[in-house]
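Example 167.
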Amino acid sequence: VPVIDLDPDQPFEVLPGAAVGGGPQRIEEFAGKAVKMDGVSPDKIGGGEDDASPVPEKVQVGHSPQYKVERKLGKGGFGQVYVGRRVSGGTERTGPDAYEVALKFEHRNSKGCNYGPPYEWQVYSSLNGCYGVPWVHYKGRQGDYYVLVMDILGPSLWDVWNSLGQT
Ligand SMILES: Nc1ncnc2c1ncn2[C@@H]1O[C@H](COP(=O)(O)OP(=O)(O)OP(=O)(O)O)[C@@H](O)[C@H]1O
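Predicted structure in complex with adenosine-5'-triphosphate:
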């Protein structure tokens, strides 16, 4: 049985201005360990609820180009996904030089980020290159959000079924 190594493979970069600050601080206990928390409860924020801080208008993480954040593609249990359009350059449809990407935002107070970057990042790293899984090209933190920059996929079967009135 192949063993998948879920250790993080790359450090991520915290951009200037991304400092955690302000807001009341609390101590919460997870798995018997005291964890210092900032601001509101992660449980209340979940998958980027509307009361969380708005996602940024522009994104640049790690060594990525800059992207303008456009329409929302969807929302999951932990994060929200938007179209990102490269501000300049970008000739490819997919890959690190793509002119359009999917940007997945996960709020730093969300339940997936209790111990730092989302655990899901390790899963994406392990699955990168697998058929049907979008390639992640850049990742990092900007302001209150952890951001993944990945290939944009076509509509899911769920999206297609709904666009046809679930017939
Ligand atoms: N790379 C992508 N390209 C295009 N659309 C995407 C991409 N990634 C996510 N989406 C859209 O955003 C939605 C939310 O994705 P996300 O990964 O946050 O959650 P999920 O996998 O649907 O659910 P859960 O978080 O419960 O596992 C998806 O259902 C899909 O419609």
